Sequence to fold (259 residues):
Amino acid sequence: MVTFWAFLAQVLVPNTSCRDALRKVQAWWILMDPDVHTGSSSNVAYTKARARLGTSVLTPIHQKLTHRMESRVGREQLWHKRQVRIVDGTSLSMPDTAANQAAYPQPCSQKPGCGFPIMKMTGIFSLASGALLHFKTSDNHEHEGVLFREMIPLLEKEDVLLADRGFCSYQSIHELSAHGVDSVMRLHGARKPDLRKAKRLGPDDFLITWTKPAKCPAGCTQEDYEALPPTMELRLVCAQVSARGFRSQIIIEEIEPEN
Fold:
């Protein structure tokens, strides 16, 4: 327990070394019992104890914390009585060990002998509480969209998913809809909608038809590709974002299903 709290404090305070974390623990022990012997000033024992904090310890802590944060979300924090979830991805630099280099190789653009192993992580967050609800990890060669689709069954029916253009794919939108989850995503740059063929619903608001990709996309199995419908109806909304001191920006979003 002491190791966990020392590690958490070290993570939350920028530029805190293991030696600094150890000194805080020693100061705490002296405060609790002035006669206690705090041991050596070497941080070797602390770093070894920290390395033993595996997933069997950290996962239950994460789950309990997430549950408490979500249980405190009030109805006024919901969007039209619905939970909004956010998906995003990132990359993590790992210790430069032979085992990590083998499991999490560096990008091919990296010069040999330089850099660190890279882990890719995709997570789903709660907009209301800010909690990280679910996450998946892989090596740097796995697309974040593939990791996201593995977590779709973990979402609840009637959830609303918010995502950037990196997750805007035919397969993801279809699987979300089939799971009872509505999605709002920025339009992927490879998609060039022809608004002349779209049905106008209002100013900057259109109903368009997406066609199934001609070939099985990367990260999609042939079986999943064949199960996709030939077309999907989506709502396309254009919004102009203006911020003082910056150029206005046009954002085009896809919304599924039509509502």
